[in-house]
Amino acid sequence: MAEIIFRKMTLADVDAVAELDKENFGVDAWSRQFFAYAAKNPHAKYIVAEFEKKIIACAGLEIYEGEADISTVAVTEKFRRRGIAQKMFAKLIRTAKKRGAKFIFAEVRTDNLPSMRLCEKFGFMIIGREKNYYANGEDAFVMGLKI
Ligand SMILES: CC(C)(COP(=O)(O)OP(=O)(O)OC[C@H]1O[C@@H](n2cnc3c(N)ncnc32)[C@H](O)[C@@H]1OP(=O)(O)O)[C@@H](O)C(=O)NCCC(=O)NCCS
Question: In the structure, which protein residues have their CB atom closer than 6 angstroms to any atom of ligand 1?
Answer without folding.
Answer: 24, 73-75, 80-86, 106, 108, 112-115, 117-118, 121
